[in-house]
Amino acid sequence: MAETISINNSKGGVAKSTSVITIAQILAISGYEVLIIDLDPQMNTTKMYGQNENPDINIEHLFCVKQPQKSSVEEFIVPTSHPGISMISASRDYYELIYKIHEASKNYPVELTFRNNLEYIKEDYDYIIIDNSPFKSALSNCSLCASNGVLTPINADNFSYDGLMDLIETIQQLNETYSLSINFTGIYMTRVSNRTNLFKQMFESYEEMFEDKFIPVSIRQADAVNQSNTSFVPLLTYDKRCTAAQDYIELVNYLGLLDNDHYKKLIHYMKGKK
Question: Which parts of 12-160 fold into alpha helices (H)?
Fold first, then answer.
């Protein structure tokens, strides 16, 4: 049964999509079956894995209509060229969908519909990773309700304490309203220069402020990240030995997402072995 992880931050430019893409790739290389769900209308994650918007599906049905069977949910899923990774592509219809979800919520608990529909396909995957728009909306609430855990990447130069507190409060409200057990897994720093005084100061401040909810694994700034994004090539494919790739592997390990057998498979890949 898949564990569902939502990557969420109300700030843009914090490497949210890069985190989704890279964490999913690490898990797939390790031998897990991964489903990526792109809920960001910018479609960066969708494009990275060579997909486009699918005009033949009605995305509203996935979020507002209880599907009658597994096959009706599978219609939203497409394979990618990367072994172990499937995807529900982003849609520009998300802009309108937000208002449809909001209207539907006046009549029934529509925020649980997406969660319930995903139950049909959870047995087919080990992990489901959700990329979210930076804007808080009815759609992001659907994503949170469908998640076991929520991760928040932050930058030292644009961190929003109020935004993070609002996210934590929203999770608590959804848990209470729907008797869920969504876990705020924690925050981690991205695009850092770890030799600077600013990084050291912010690291210590976040650690003191958030205690066990601050993840002590930071993703270093690396040219390879920008280059892989520009080339639409996932990071480990572009440069698996860059510092940021190493950091993401450490993050995945810290979160306990890899067991020993899958970790060995990842190490073989990193060493260039088949």
Answer: 16-29, 44-48, 60-64, 70-74, 94-104, 113-118, 138-145
Query: What's the DSSP call for residue 124?
Result: G
Please enumerate, as own/partner, the contacts of 177-183 that have beta carbons within 8 Å and a separation of 24 or more: 178/109, 178/111, 178/112, 178/145, 180/145, 181/148, 182/144, 182/145, 182/147, 182/148, 182/149, 182/150, 183/148, 183/149, 183/150
Q: Locate all alpha helices (DSSP H) within 65-196, ordered by sequence.
A: 70-74, 94-104, 113-118, 138-145, 161-178
CA angle 139, 52, 7 (to 5 degrees): 40
Could you tell me if 176 and 141 are in contact, meaning their C-beta atoms sit under 8 angstroms apart? no
What single letter denotes the amino acid at residue 133? S
pTM of the model: 0.95
Rounded distance between C-alpha atoms, residue 25 and residue 43, angstroms: 17
User: pLDDT, tens digit, for every residue of 54-82?
Assistant: 777 899 999 999 999 999 999 999 999 99
Residue 211: other Cβ atoms inside 10 A: 9
What are the distances in angstroms from CA 3 to CA 11, 64, 79, 83, 258? 25, 22, 19, 19, 12
CA distance 156 to 177: 33
**Residue 5 in contact with residue 215, Cβ under 8 Å?**
no
d(CA 208, CA 225): 29
Do the bridges between strand 78-79 and strand 85-88 make them parallel or antiparallel, or are there none, so unpaired?
antiparallel
